[in-house]
Amino acid sequence: MRSITYAGETIITTNEVAEALVKLTAAIANDGRAEAVTIPIVSRTTDDDGTAELVIGVGNDVLSAPAEWEGDELDFSEAAAALRSHPGYPRRSATGAELYALNDPDTSWDPDLDGFTRA
Q1: What is the C-alpha separation between 88 and 25, in angstroms, rounded?
Q2: What residue spans carry the region label Disordered (predicted)?
Q3: Residues 6 or more apart whose Cβ sits within 8 Å of residue 14
Q4: In the beta sheet, which residues pair with residue 60?
């Protein structure tokens, strides 16, 4: 389970939802946008589940950290799948290749040069 810190509050959700939320937040922010999403959460004190609504993207920081949790991780896989199906979620190409080709000199980062190998 993971703690999500957002706007000074902390909520708990599953590892899978937290990972999808962070990736989607970064992708939406990269597009210069913000959007509202709903995620499933659980209360640490009552073990009840519910939902939280968050605005993610530009100007909205989301922090995911391990949560102290006893018991089994809940199954919020449908919610994680919904986040991953968002049109703004980062995806691989249809061939399964990375978004940037590793051996393409136009996109290869050279750590010795602190930059790209070719402008």
Answers
A1: 9
A2: 100-119
A3: 1, 2, 40, 73, 74, 75, 76, 77, 80
A4: 57
Would you say 100 and 42 are in contact if contact means Cβ atoms under 8 Å apart?
Answer: no
More confident call, 97 vs 48: 48
In the block, which residue shows the tokens 């000199």?
105
Q: How many CB atoms lie within 10 A of CB 117?
A: 13
Over residues 1-21, the pLDDT tens digits come to: 999 999 899 999 999 999 999
**Per-residue DSSP letters for 62-109?**
-EEEE----SPPP--HHHHHHHHTSTTS----TTS--SS-TT-TTT-E
Which residues contact residue 109 at a Cβ distance below 8 angstroms, ignoring those fewer than 6 apart?
115, 116, 117
Q: Enter the tokens of residue 52.
A: 């939280």
Distance CA 49, CA 74 (A): 9
Cβ atoms of 106 and 119 closer than 8 Å: no
